[in-house]
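quick q for whoever's on today - can somebody do inverse folding on this one?? i tried earlier but teh output was garbage lol. tokens:
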């Protein structure tokens, strides 16, 4: 799996923030539900904290990146 672009990191960060705001209280679980490698997961978490610093105090739970097939459908490169 290749590294995410800056735009993709921002999209993932906003998706995590939205899910957290809708009631999912485990930010680590939210991030681990996406198919991200460790470096990308850390970058998304940093982006989330940059956008919403108050979430840092919401309690950090460990996350474990998982692999999933949706990644290719969501972030595939379009050929021209």
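ok took a stab at it. sequence:
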């Amino acid at each position: 799996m290749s590294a995410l672009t800056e735009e993709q990191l921002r999209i993932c960060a906003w998706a995590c923030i939205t899910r957290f705001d809708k009631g999912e209280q485990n930010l680590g679980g939210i991030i681990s539900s996406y198919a991200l490698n460790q470096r990308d997961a850390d970058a998304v978490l940093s982006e989330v904290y940059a956008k919403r610093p108050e979430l840092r105090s919401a309690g950090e739970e460990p996350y474990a990146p998982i692999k999933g097939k949706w990644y290719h459908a969501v972030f595939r490169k379009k050929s021209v």
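fwiw The two ends are 22 Å apart (CA to CA). also The mean pLDDT is 78. so keep that in mind when u check it
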